[in-house]
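Usage

Read records sequentially. Each one opens with the input sequence:
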Amino acid sequence: MEITDHFLERIDRVNPQVGAYVTVTAESAREQARAAEKRVAAASDPAALPPLLGVPVPVKDLNAVNGVRLTLGSKVFHDRIARTDDNVVVRLREAGSVLPGKTQTPEFGLPSYSENGVAPPARTPWDLGRSAGGSSGGAAAAVAAGLAPAAQGSDGGGSIRIPSSACGLFGIKPTRGRVSQGPVGADLFGLSTSGPIARSVRDAALLLDVMAGPAPGDLYAAPPPDGTFLSHAERPPGRLRIARSIEPNADGVEVHPDCAAAYEEASALLEELGHEVVDVPSFFGAALVPHFELLWGVMATLTEVPEGREHLLQPLTRWLRERGRAVTATEVLRAHASMQAVLRKAFPVMNGFDAILHPTLAQPPVPVGYFHDQEPIENFERQTRFTPFCAAYNISGQPAVNVPLHWTADGLPIGVMLAGRLGGEGTLISLSAQLEEARPWIDRRPPLWD
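and closes with the structure output:
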């Protein structure tokens, strides 16, 4: 109970500064915490208790929690109450976690920042004038500000890795099909998946163990893991062959010197740890961008908006939906076929490596409003220049993580991304744990932490 009270007190005091939570469920969280206490007191074998018993884990406001407001980051749904739990929430409950509330996300999770018309923007606790990223910006802001020990996020184009980089955290986008999108969420394109955001590799690995698992009706299934993900955080990775590329998967992108420095430092550290690091050109190039953008517009149309409420949507959302409605079924299928053609060439080369290193982002955390205050076309172009590395691994379905190894002279976190083979989360976790041991980041805390 004391743990839940501690985080609820911090949420009450700090959340107005960082915009992490959209909805706080204090009363039900305390009820869950009291039930956890009773369960511990009655247990004859503490080792048999659920792994997250009594641990607060917030849920992103794109995911349904029965009886709790589900806005999808939109004024259209500002007062809607969910009538079921998403499968990932069921798993969090079964693991004994306490659900303290819902975290901030942009409208329908579409942009790479977390600003909307429902609640204040999610800000990185390292600089409250800057965005926490998106679309899991509220989840990352909550963990980085000490408003939760870990959080559930989701990632359809970088939405776990982007805010993890902006907030100095470890985040995992799992392999496609590792975590169920059901029972309501569609996984038609296979781009999006839930995953963990945490301060340490071990915490994220444990949370992924809890989230992982298929459900009836899922369209995709990940290869079975080799043991628990937590066990991988406790074993050395061995000597790995690691590709690296700083070539963006979009035209006209310049990688900021701080992001390039983080990439070079991570490369040097990997070599110091005994790994073979090999320079490679981009596996994908800019060929995937137009196809991904086409699908992104189509995905924006999948959320049904009640008649007469379309005007309540954000300008970017309306623009994306207009683009999506103009796409024909034939064009969708051609986009999928074109992406598959790129992947068929890329996978045989990528599979020759145990991991692939990139900058997570091409820029440090940007000011609040940097995207949101622009006209839709400029907004979208700025996002493309901001995050030209992440979405390729949503298209391929490969796992990818953000590792928070670098901070700028001004104290802003800069992450690097490691991608792995399909089903290769264990290798990424082992390698990340080795990096964490070599360059610990757990004691780095933003000023408002205290």
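Summary fields computed downstream for this record:
- The longest strand covers residues 400-407.
- The first helix runs from residue 2 to 18.
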